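wait is this the right file?? whatever heres the structure
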């Protein structure tokens, strides 16, 4: 029975891959009105975050802002103060007409939160991404006493470890969560079957003794935690 469930799961995951990931998109800024930016062409999907790159001269460019697409060719500036240029202390994060925009920046770097090792292995084996192992995220939660996964600590983790997307396997579907915009940018149905889950998500670390994480490790349901991230 377990082998049959595993086969059905793998077939479901294989279908899930096609068209699931929004493609990285490049466009330009055509107008700036306060916090609102008009793009020459839309990004891959509403909710997709991106970076704005300004060319100071022929050789010098810098990231001057983050944006998130809100509606067709309209994007909003977000979190420009988070961009640090240690080699360019005088750079001012200001978005200008003509600047380049890269939507889906770092979307190839994906953190996968899965209910068990089998689901995790099937996904990473069948898709060519730079997978950020959940062990790193678990250690991050423990070290900083963040407790359980949520939008806020996923955003902090993504900025620290250059994560573009969080792939979250839920009970009957999977989502792609953009941690910068805190938006869902992809969703597909998935059949997990009646499989054992690991709380709060699959990781190779059996115990983490520091922080709140240790006391919460075995007290909860994986799917309840993941359903709260929308």
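ok assuming it is, sequence goes like this
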């Amino acid at each position: 029975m377990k082998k049959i469930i595993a086969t059905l799961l793998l077939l479901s995951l294989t279908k899930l891959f096609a068209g699931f990931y929004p493609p990285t998109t490049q466009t330009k800024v055509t107008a700036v009105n306060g916090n609102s930016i008009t793009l020459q062409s839309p990004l891959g999907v509403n909710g997709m975050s991106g970076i704005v790159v300004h060319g100071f001269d022929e050789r010098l460019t810098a990231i001057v802002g983050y944006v998130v697409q809100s509606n067709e060719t309209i994007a909003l500036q977000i979190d420009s103060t988070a961009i640090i240029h240690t080699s360019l202390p005088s750079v001012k994060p200001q978005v200008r007409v003509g600047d380049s925009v890269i939507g889906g920046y770092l979307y190839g770097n994906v953190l996968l939160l899965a209910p068990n090792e089998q689901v995790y292995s099937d996904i990473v084996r069948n898709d060519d991404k730079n997978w950020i192992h959940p062990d790193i995220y678990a250690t991050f939660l423990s070290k900083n006493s963040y407790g359980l996964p949520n939008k806020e600590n996923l955003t902090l983790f993504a900025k620290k470890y250059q994560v573009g997307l969080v792939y979250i396997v839920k009970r009957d579907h999977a989502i792609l969560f953009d941690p910068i915009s805190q938006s869902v940018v992809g969703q597909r149905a998935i059949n997990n079957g009646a499989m054992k889950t690991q709380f709060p998500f699959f990781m190779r670390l059996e115990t983490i003794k520091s922080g709140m994480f240790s006391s919460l490790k075995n007290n909860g349901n994986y799917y309840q935690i993941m359903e709260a991230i929308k």
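The chain has six helices and eleven strands. so i think its the right one actually
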